[in-house]
Amino acid sequence: KKKKIKFSIPKSDIVQIKVYDILGKEVTTLLNEYTLAGTYEIEFFANSLPSGVYFYRIISGIYSETKKMILLR
Q1: How far apart are CA 60 and CA 49, in angstroms?
Q2: How many Å apart are CA 7 and CA 42, to the nearest integer?
Q3: For residue 63, what are the CA distances in angstroms to 2, 12, 42?
């Protein structure tokens, strides 16, 4: 199962995208690199994860956003 995560970076900077389970435990890091300003889409392959609620956090410079996603099998 794969999920697509779309995000926009207003200013070129190091970007981190991490996925957490419902308890706040980090599951994986999807991105951790210098990224140019723009709009992107990244695929998250969740084959080994059970169904449930997960959160992903995007961090770029002083910007941080957390969003919820539901994974269904």
Answers
A1: 26
A2: 8
A3: 26, 12, 18
Distance CA 19, CA 66 (A): 9
Please tell me the distance from the alpha carbon of residue 41 to that of residue 5, in angstroms, as a whole number: 5
pLDDT, tens only, 12-51: 999 999 999 999 999 999 999 999 999 999 999 888 899 9
Which pTM does this prediction carry? 0.89
Q: Are strands 38-45 and 2-9 parallel, antiparallel or unpaired?
A: antiparallel
Contacts of 13 (CB under 8 A, 6+ apart): 34, 35, 60, 61
